[in-house]
Amino acid sequence: MSSSTDYGSHTWELLLTVDHQHEGVEKEFLLQVTGDLHIGGLMLKLVEKMNISQDWSDYAFWWEQKKCWLLKTHWTLDKCGVQADAKLFFTPQHKMLRLRLPNMKTVRLKVSFSTMVFRAVSDICKILNIRRSEELSLLKQSGDTLKKKKKKDKNSKEPVTEDILNLCNSPASSGLPANPGLYSKTMTPIYDPVSGSPASSTITWFSDSPLTEQNCNVLALSYPNCSPEMLAEMYQPRSLADKAKLNAGWLDSSRSLMEQGVLEEDQLLLRFKYYTFFDLNPKYDAVRINQLYEQARWAILLEEIDCTEEEMLIFAAIQYHVSKLSLSSEAQDSTCESEVDEVEAALSNLEVTLEGGSTSNILEDITDIPKLADNLRLVRPRKLSLKAIKSYWFIFRDTSISYFKNKESAQGEPIEKLNLKGCEVVPDVNVAAKKFGIKLLIPVADGMNEVYLRCDNEDQYARWMAACVLASKGRTMADSSYQPEVQKILSFLQMKNMSAQAPSDPESVDMKPECFVSLRYTKKYKSKQLTARILEAHQNISQMSLVEAKLRFIQAWQSLPEFGLSYYIVRFKGSKKDDVLGVSYNRLIRIDMATGDPITTWRFSNMKQWNVNWEIRQVAIEFDQNVSIAFTCLSADCKIIHEYIGGYIFLSTRSKDQNETLDEELFHKLTGGQE
């Protein structure tokens, strides 16, 4: 027989704090518990003691000292390690969060603070009707990027709060997942592929979602630009070190918001983190395309990515066009004139897929090995002397370039053969000066071999540039993307040509050109000069539809040399100085911090394995041919770079054949790490 005192020695007091909104009701409760009491039993005891009639299904325990959720309700207090000194908060798992979208609009919605960020972003994207949520993530703005904003008056907070789009009636507000119907093949909301507005026949799909037609237009349409004064107050990176600060605040996808110090009503940025935009479809992706366009637009305006003056004028012309169409009621109300029956379109696509395009070319594509052969000029930079420029006969076959003294000697051994697989391809073009160059940075054992090719005209440049771009990715000219790549380059050159023409007198157009270019150009040119040059460039795109113009802007953004690079300041093992590491969708680039020149490139396709030593926070990577590197990250947590590498490898496994459900387990296996 055990006495009552023996029994009492096994029980202890645990202080619990309840996060509820009932006035006049206590928030702290002292319960007698035992170590073998499971978490679910503790919840039941607490709710019975409170005696408040409400739905507690979304509530869970948050352990303040350990910064973790106690979500496994079958675990006992002993197994969780909970003792008498633990501070447990009984709080809702879904809380209000403010998200600043790429178009600078702020939405307020309920988000799960207890699930991993990867899942939380997926639920957010379902509410906002953005497909492919794996390309996005949440970003905390660093203190440095907010410095300019802090200089504003206290009154400046008012317009921000007025501009918040409240989506608090989202399905997630009750702790339920977002409506999966949004993603089924038959119930995805359909958008007008011309204007991007929701098609009237399918707007009813939004009835169960907080995205009413009006709210959807706020997210899917681009609205008037900000003033130059407002642009001047925003953070603009001036160096690679500044650009590295922009990427320091990515949240860990494998941990919850609460575990990372995010509180209710905090503001985070929702941004496209991974620059591989899969399966963009104007019919279903109006919101996604618009947010992508906006992220690209702000990156250009704030000079987060470098571009030439010609390119800046092209971007300005497209922005002006988009702005004009967005403001016109025709763009918002029109329906696609050439609307094709869905079944007919699907059958047509199937027919093309089965036939593999034009039947007359099938045999030719199989038997012929595509090649290019032309007279080009070769430029090799030399230290302490002028560049050596000489004309040679070049042959491009598969993924390699060979060059010979002349056409007649092409049957013999080449002077040199350059393998372009894994190289960097950078355009070196000035249309006005008739300069069409291709800069190749070819990886070699001790760094990068720098070679310039000079073409004679636009057509030759487009063919050779497209071949170089594909070869750098390990693809040949036999690839189906070669001809579209050539056309894209020619179209881009044509736009540059229009912007390079002598500016004519600007018409009496209601344009504020300062809203479409970065501050550097507003200081360099007068308003009338900018207007004239933007209108010149606009002539070439004036017939484009709204969605087509946004997609063209995104394509032009993707063609910039720095596109898709996220920068971090690192210290390589054995090095005495800091370098910048650029992380892209298919490679890592070591960059000299002082000059901005690439030193070495490593391709993910050559990677054997990578791991992190969590004790010293060092990332170690092994590549083919016994190449290995190791570095510590100075501008951010090494987990962010580790997740970037794993995330890009995960995204490379996607295919159009699979449905839109993601292998979340594989993502966490590749990105989670073992701390």
From TrEMBL:
Record keywords: Cell adhesion, Cell junction, Cell projection
Database matches in CDD domains: FERM_C_fermitin, FERM_F0_KIND1, PH_fermitin
Cellular component, GO, one term: focal adhesion
Top-level taxon of origin: Eukaryota
Keyword Metal-binding among UniProt keywords: no
Subcellular localization(s) per the UniProt record: Cell junction; Cell projection
Molecular function (Gene Ontology), one example: integrin binding
Residue intervals of the PH domain: 377-473
Record-linked InterPro entries: Band_41_domain (IPR019749), FERM_2 (IPR035963), FERM_central (IPR019748), FERM_CS (IPR019747), Kindlin/fermitin (IPR037843), Kindlin_2_N (IPR040790), PH-like_dom_sf (IPR011993), PH_domain (IPR001849)
Gene Ontology biological-process entries: cell-matrix adhesion; integrin-mediated signaling pathway
Keyword Phosphoprotein annotated: no
Family membership: Belongs to the kindlin family.
The name this protein goes by in its record: Fermitin family homolog 1
